[in-house]
Write a structure and sequence with these properties.
Blueprint lengths: L3 H34 L8 H25 L27 H27 L14 E5 L1 H8 L8 E3 L12 E2 L2 E2 H8 L3 E5 L10 H16 L5 E5 L6 H5 L7 H14 L6 E3 L1 H5 L20 H15 L1
Parallel strand pairs: 1-2, 1-5, 5-6, 6-7
Antiparallel strand pairs: 3-4
Helix pairs in contact: 1-2, 6-8
């Protein structure tokens, strides 16, 4: 960067050039006038005058720069700048002892372990689509119209699904689907795992405590029919639009209340509770628009893939 002297010199050079141009113009006018009068006896031309002025200016500039360099006024210095000491130097740590060194890896391992646990927890409810259809080949799904989509969309075979519209915990054992009761289905299919998701048709109409108890009773009766592992699935959320609809009595509050009571009711039955509701909900607790059908209650095709992936992860 130019210092003040050089900047001034550069500025002076620009001004001088402008002056030279003006002088040249004036000289040209004068010389032309003299030629007309026959007074230019020495052959002086405007270019000669301009070149002489420019040469003088360049010589002055070079001399000025040379003077600055010789006297060390070019704005640089070989000595480091002075720095005031405003605080005491930091204390140095003592060399680590053997005990300190040996304990360090344990602390690091603890941090990594806790970090890994936090990471696992944060990703546990992240929706994925990575289920294996073969994994559910010996599983039976019991449910209402929502569960019928498992076979209708082709994600599972019809033999893996015992579901129909309007099915409820209190009617599941007595219901017949294509002339087959639930007990007949279990006896013939001999499932190794049974997934039950019921209650959507009853929440809002029945008392949630009674409904959860009815679900627990169903689980106990199924346990008497088979040695299969039973999983009770929370009922899914609904969209805000479905909550405002006059076509059903479902509300987010009632759904959350039923799922909480359902988890408590089946905790002592030997069945495992899987919270599918959480993975299908958005940040407000309502059915994520990417998963909900137009009615805000039933599943889109992709939702069944998310559902099966989540169930596989939590039933392995």
């Amino acid at each position: 960067m130019l210092n003040r002297h050089r900047f001034f010199c550069f500025y002076l050079l620009i001004i001088s050039l402008k002056c030279c141009i003006i002088i040249q113009y004036d000289c040209e006018v004068c010389v032309l006038a003299q030629k007309k009068k026959g007074k230019n006896k020495f052959g002086i031309t405007p270019s000669m005058i301009f070149m002489n002025l420019l040469l003088v200016l360049i010589i002055c500039t070079v001399c000025f720069f040379t003077y600055n360099i010789i006297n060390g006024e070019d704005g640089t210095s070989s000595e480091p700048p002075f720095t005031a000491v405003t605080s005491e130097p930091p204390e140095t740590e003592a060399p680590a002892t053997d005990s300190d060194v040996s304990s360090a890896p344990e602390s690091t391992a603890s941090v990594e372990e806790s970090s890994g646990t936090a990471s696992d927890t944060s990703t546990d409810n992240q929706p994925t689509i990575d289920f294996d259809k073969e994994y559910f080949s010996s599983s039976l799904f019991i449910g209402d119209s929502i569960s019928t989509g498992l076979s209708l969309y082709g994600f599972l075979d019809q033999d893996n699904v015992f579901a129909q519209q309007g099915l409820a915990p209190s009617t599941a054992l007595d219901a017949e689907i294509d002339g087959v009761t639930l007990s007949d289905k279990i006896a013939a299919f001999k499932p190794k795992k049974i997934f039950v998701m019921l209650g959507t048709n009853s929440v809002g109409y029945a008392d949630n405590e009674t409904l959860a108890a009815s679900m627990n009773e169903l689980v106990e009766k199924i346990s008497g029919l088979t040695k299969a592992k039973i999983y009770v699935i929370s009922i899914p959320p609904i969209t805000p639009e479905a909550e405002q609809s006059d076509e059903n009595e479902l509300t987010k509050k009632d759904i959350d209340d039923y799922n909480a009571k359902l988890k408590t009711a089946v905790s002592g039955s030997g069945a495992s509770f899987i919270d599918l509701n959480s993975v299908l909900s958005n940040s407000d607790g309502y059915f994520d628009a990417d998963y909900a059908e137009m009615d805000g209650i039933h599943f889109m095709g992709t939702t069944y893939e998310v559902m099966l992936s989540y169930l596989q992860k939590h039933s392995s």
